[in-house]
Amino acid sequence: MRIRARRWGFGLTAFLAVLAFTGCNKTDTAATPPPPVAVGESVEFSGVGLKVNSMLRQGQIGDFFKPAAGNAFVTVNVTISNKRPYQIPYRPYHFTLKDSTGTVYQAGVTAGPQILQSSTLDATKDVTGNINFDVPQTAPGLTLVYQVPGTSGAITVTLGDVGSIPTPSPTPAPTQTNTPGPAPTPGEPTAIPTVEQPTSVAVPAPTPVNTLTPTAGPTPAPAP
Q: 56 - beta bridge partners?
């Protein structure tokens, strides 16, 4: 009887442990998702929070990636917060864009700064990253749809028409500024060097030389 009681007690303990673990990982799939929110607003559903920090419309990403003809890249910066007591996965393809006509656009180019990668998020932690979408420039009424892991519900964020999404500000060209040097410290006046004038030397006048003029002798008499 004691052996059976011990076995029964062990089995009950194991069952309760499994039940507790299952309860921790259970998500509320029947809950109603929250209504759409705006950019900059935080929203939570089934223990997972989301905030769209910013959005940007670009004609090119980096030096090589360009959208399809007539399209533009819509880059959405998001923060995912895990408020569950266990890890959750996060993937770029958990996000889609949907316009007012019902057309759905999948996450596209994984290039550019701070791209949201695929990984897991620990309990009580958050992660921030960019997601790129290749969307027609005429797409109306875009909404970001985030499929919350472990549920059949989604969080939605209203973005607006593609044309209303801001574009990157041009980078101003650098300007060169001449910084003046330090002002000279006043001190003793500097003496200006005096240029000595050359001393004139008296040159004596040349002494006249007497020139002897030859004197004509007597003219000899003619011979007889």
A: 75
| Distance between CA atoms of residues 189 and 82, nearest Å | 75
The pLDDT score that the predictor gives to residue 205 is: 61
Report yes or no: 74 and 56 within 8 Å, Cβ to Cβ: yes
Measured CA distances, 73 to 59, 91, 110, 169, 204 (Å) = 6, 19, 11, 15, 102
Look at residue 17 and tell me whether its pLDDT is greater than 50. no
CB 57 within 8 A of CB 165: yes
2.130.10.10, 2.60.40.1240, 3.40.50.300, 2.10.109.10: CATH of 36-163: 2.60.40.1240
Tell me what the pLDDT averaged over the chain comes to.
79
DSSP state, 66?
-
**Total residue length of the chain:** 224
Q: Domain spans of the chain?
A: 36-163
